[in-house]
Structure formats: C-alpha cells, structure tokens
Amino acid sequence: MDKLTEEFRKSLVNNTKEPLMEYIELGIDSFIDDGLLKEVPIVNSIVSVLKVSKSIYDRNLLKQTLTFINEFNSGNLEENVINEYVERISKNEKKCEEELGRVLIILNNNIDKEKSILLAKIFKSYVYSKINWNEFCEFSEILNRVFIQDLVLLKKVRIKNVDILKNRDDNFRIERLYSLGLIGIAFKQPTFGDLKEGTINTCRTVSSLGEKFCNIIFD
C-alpha cells in the first residue's frame, strides 16, 4: 500500500481534536517551521516532503487534505460507523488504495478549499452508506467539473424554479448545470397571456440526480 494512502487512513479520524482550520489559516510554513500537528500522521508524511522540495503541489495537498479531514470530523459523528469503515479498509489494501488513493488525487487537484469541504461531505455520505461507491465517483466527478458560483445558482433553482426567460444572464451557468445532469427543464401551465403571445412558459428544476447531490452538499 502507498505510504501516503496509509497515513491518510490513519488520519481520517482526527483524535487530536485540534481546530485544523485555524492552523490552515496560519499558513503552510507554520507546519514546516514549527512542527505543528505532529499527531496527525499524514501531516508528518507530507511535511517531510515539503522540507526537501517545498513544492507548491505538496503544499496544496497538505492544505486541501487538512481541510478535508476537518470537515469529515465535523458535525455529529457516527464514530462507530467511521471506525468500522477504517477497520474494513485496513484489512483490504487494494480497496484502501482504490478509495483513499482516489480521494487524495482529487484533493491534490483542488484549488478551492470549498471543493475539499464538499468532497468530505460526499465521502462521509459514502462511509455512512447513504450512497454507494459508484455514486461517490459520479458525485466527486461532478464536483470536480462544477464551478463554485454555479452551486449558488443550483441552490436557488432548488428552492424556487428559475424562469429561463427572466434570468437570461444566468443562462451560461444554467447550461453548465444542465450538462452535468443536475437540473432539467419543466413546463409550466400556460396563462392566457402566454397563449396570446405564443410564449412557451418553461423553467429549470433540479433533477433527481441533482436533488441527491444537493441533499449531500447543502443539507
């Protein structure tokens, strides 16, 4: 098993109870110079590389990974479920490499911390068996391709249908969300005025796939 994947497995449950986001805000150099958070195995592993190369890619991986771990450990944890998952992949190196290795690759490709936070929510849903592995892969790919600002619009569409004709400035975002399968088209009952003007009254609604995605990242 890859050493970094193994360290990531050990770090999934943050037993230090340290406020990781506060350390992240201090800057990556703090981890290198002051040796903070030595209790988190993956920190030692990545920092040891940083001390040699100080690569921007490795610095980003550390930042995104700690953001992920912090979010994964937030809220009301079902520690027994998480511990069962960690124990299960500990006994299956291939599965551990496939699943946690994939997460690490995604994290290292992230630029925005917001995406690492959302990835943690999706992965937690998988660990809690709310979605299966194939769904995790699909949702993580959607997350990789979506723009953060498009998610703001997705939330609006979910709360209240967005009329295509009245929101033309958002059309390019609408089309991007549509291409990802997160929203679809719905037809409203035409009014007398619509019939008189020959207007097709359409709006965008969240698709069944989009609703499941929203339930994970927004709720």
Task: Describe this structure as you would to a colleague.
Residues 195-200 have low confidence and may be disordered. Helices cover 67% and strands 5% of the residues. The protein is mostly helical. The chain has two domains: 3-145, no CATH class; 148-217, no CATH class. It starts with a helix and ends with a helix. Helix 2 (20-26) packs across helix 3, helix 5 (56-72) crosses helix 7 (93-109) and helix 5 (56-72) packs across helix 8 (113-127).
Total helical elements:
13
Number of domains: 2
Question: Strand sequence of the main sheet, in spatial order?
Answer: 1-3-2
Structural class: mainly alpha
Run of helices and strands: HHHHHHHHHHEHEHEH
- Largest sheet: number of strands, sense, barrel closure: 3 strands, antiparallel
Condensed summary:
The chain has 219 residues and is mainly α. It folds into two domains: 3-145, no CATH class; 148-217, no CATH class.
